[in-house]
Amino acid sequence: MLLDYNSMLLAVGFSAACLSMTLFGTWLTARSDRFLLTWAISVLVIVGEVFVYDAYIEAPGPVLGVLTLALLLLGFSVMLGAAHQFRTGRSPLPRVLVGAGISLALALPPMALGYDGLGFMLENALAALLLFGTAYEYWRG
Question: Which domain holds residue 122?
């Protein structure tokens, strides 16, 4: 029996929500490790993106398209900030603002103008760069 696309999105969304709650619970027991809270927030933003993307699949439109791109890129930018915070102990905000600012400025205009394909291509490329940046932070660690 094959799983349909909506079932897979639902499974990813609930799994990520559970991961976010686990990270938040871990942070509650070790509040000095603030990067755990930042990770939990990043995963929670991505959970929101999964459900918005599901709504976009059901009824495509520029508003939901822009929102799904914004949430995914913001979530990965917060994840980049969490990696920096883990490695250095400093605030994640500068990395989050740079990552989100650049990626949103590049990916959102095509989607807002109705070029969905170009918007998603840029989103995927920028999401990959943000994830490579996150991995690089850990590698430097």
Answer: 5-140
What's the rounded Cα separation, in Å, for the pair 61 and 136? 35
**What are the tens digits of pLDDT across the range 58-96?**
999 999 999 999 999 999 999 999 999 999 999 999 999
Say how many domains are in the chain: 1
Q: How many CA atoms lie within 13 A of 3 on its CB side?
A: 8
What is the C-alpha to C-alpha distance for residues 5 and 33, in angstroms, rounded to an integer?
36
Dihedral pair phi/psi, residue 115, rounded to 5°: -90, 75
- Rounded-to-integer distance, Cα 77 and Cα 80, Å: 5
> Given a cut of 80, is residue 2 above it in pLDDT?
no
Q: Residue with structure tokens 């990959």?
A: 128
Distance CA 108, CA 128 (A): 16
Tokens of 54: 């599901």
pTM above 0.90, yes or no: yes
Angle at which helices 5-29 and 34-58 cross, to 10°: 160
